[in-house]
Write a structure and sequence with these properties.
The protein is α+β, with helices and mostly antiparallel strands. The chain has 2 domains: 4-205, Arylamine N-acetyltransferase fold (2-Layer Sandwich), CATH 3.30.2140; 217-271, no CATH class. The protein is 29% helix and 24% strand. The chain contains 9 helices and 13 strands. The strands form 2 sheets. Strands 5-4-3-2-9-8-7-6 form an 8-stranded antiparallel β-sheet, with helices on one face. A 5-stranded antiparallel β-sheet has the order 1-10-11-12-13. Strand 8 and strand 9 form a beta hairpin. Helix 5 (65-73) packs across helix 6. The termini are far apart.
Length: 283
């Protein structure tokens, strides 16, 4: 389910792997094993927040490795799915894994018959010596996001504490099998997050999608601030001016912020985001 072309997208500036691993606080043995994949994935998911400051301020973020390194690794910032997963793909490739980029339709919150475009970036990660690749994704800005990768197998379940996820096959019109990632909710239900096939996507595909999502005036990412951060004992979410802290048992504390200036302070204090000096959010 991988391809040489997907695994080797062409010459690019090399990622500073030492700096990246220091940023996520990971210091394990650098070998392409399932344990390394799980621990690096979890460290990234817990270590770098989700945020969309550039789109809210009117620009599309760069997906060049050097720019992602400057922003997410050295700059104390976060990003959204294209930034997070481009960075993770570069790191996993440097560690010896084979990567195939994929694209998903977000289905969480969709109504009956609501067909959304494929805009969410994720990847398949092949572990040497293992027959089944893993779905890896550190860029889903939702409380249902993966903390650890899940094997691409029907019914495969991962207890990525404090969460649980599974993959199921779902019917659709098309030659490739469709998969859905589902998250286990505190009330005991399985909630679908996104649907995808294993059709490979390439870096240029994401350049187009990234620009559209960041600049289209109808895109939610260009109209409203989003930030997410997962800690060992809570999930933090900022949507517009609404700050929500959700505990492992599903209990929520909600606070309405007064203005953009307070939202920027919350980004720094709660989400660990180093906001660029002079930043002003639209009211």
């Amino acid at each position: 389910m991988t391809s040489d072309r997907a695994a080797d997208p062409g010459p690019r500036p090399a990622l500073d792997l030492d700096a990246y691993l220091a940023r996520i606080g990971w210091s394990g043995e650098r070998r392409p094993t399932a344990d390394v994949l799980r621990s690096v994935h979890r460290a990234h998911a817990l270590g770098i927040p989700f945020e969309n400051l550039e789109p809210v301020l009117g620009s599309a973020p760069s997906l060049a490795i050097a720019d992602l390194e400057a922003k997410l690794v050295r700059g104390g910032r976060g990003g959204y799915c294209y930034e997070h997963n481009t960075l993770l793909a570069a790191a996993l490739t440097a560690l010896g894994f084979r990567i195939t980029l994929l694209c998903a339709r977000v289905v969480v919150g969709a109504g009956p018959g609501d067909i959304r475009p494929r805009t969410h970036m994720l990847m398949l990660t092949a572990v040497p010596g293992e027959p089944t690749p893993y779905v890896a994704d550190v860029g889903f800005g939702s409380i249902g996001a993966l903390l650890e990768p899940v094997p691409l197998a029907a019914g495969a379940e991962v207890a990525d504490t404090p969460r649980r996820h599974r993959l199921v096959n779902t019917p659709h019109d098309g030659p490739l099998a469709q998969w859905e990632l589902q998250a286990h909710t505190p009330d005991g239900a399985w909630e679908s997050q996104y649907a995808f096939t294993v059709e490979p996507f390439e870096a240029p595909d994401y350049e187009v999608i990234n620009w559209h999502i960041a600049t289209n005036p109808r895109s939610p990412f260009s109209r409203r601030l989003y930030a997410q951060r997962t800690t060992p004992d809570a999930h933090l979410s900022l949507t517009g001016r609404t700050l929500t802290v959700t505990g492992p048992d599903g209990t929520r504390e909600v606070r309405e912020l007064s203005d953009g200036a307070e939202a920027l302070r919350v980004l720094a204090a709660y989400f660990g985001i180093r906001v660029p000096p002079g930043t002003r959010l639209p009211e």
